[in-house]
Amino acid sequence: LLEASSQYATGTRSALILPFALGIGMALPWPIVGGGSSFLPKPGTWMNKVKYAFGILILAMAGYYLSIGLSLVQNKDVTETSFKRLEIALEQSQQQGRPVFIDFWATWCKNCKYMDELTFSNEKVKKSLKKFILVKFQAENISDPRVSNLLNRYKLIGLPSYVILSPKGGK
């Protein structure tokens, strides 16, 4: 209907046919469905089986949504833990005078997993990173205001991202 009205507003007179076609398209199946309903099986024990099947389907969907809800709660805990680890690493950096290497990642990020498997497992890379205080910041929910503010502070546009911070007054 919106398409028909916008076309009619631009001067296309044939747009008046679109609501008529919509009405025909919505009305046409009803006589066919009404005439074909005599062929459908009559209610009986099979309907109880259908009812139980739909009940199981509803329970399965409820379990699925429960798991999604629990993962959201866990992500909040993961975010808090990541912020605590970052805070501890920054304090250690000030005390020890060592730079901090922050690895921003998430479990849903395929490139983050590839970096862990291919790059960070390399012995040369591991040896090079020993001079840093390493922090793996799990940024699962980048729409979380605290996480997005942190990513914006370092001008990061996506995951994986890496930041190196040197301690103030450090060596």
What's the short story on this structure?
This protein is mostly helical and 171 residues long. The chain is 61% helix and 10% strand. It contains seven helices and three strands; from the N terminus they run ααααβααβαβ.
**Physical arrangement of strands within the biggest beta sheet:** 2-1-3
Q: Identify low-pLDDT runs.
A: none
Shape estimate: elongated
What is the chain-wise order of helices and strands? HHHHEHHEHE
User: In percent, how helical is the residue content?
Assistant: 55-70%
Tally of separate helices? 7
Mean model confidence by pLDDT: 87
Distance between the ends: 69 Å
* Biggest pleated-sheet summary: 3 strands, mixed
Structural class given helices, strands, pairing?
Answer: mainly alpha
Q: Tell me how many strands there are.
A: 3
Gyration radius over CA: 30 Å
- The percentage of residues in β strands lies in 5-15%
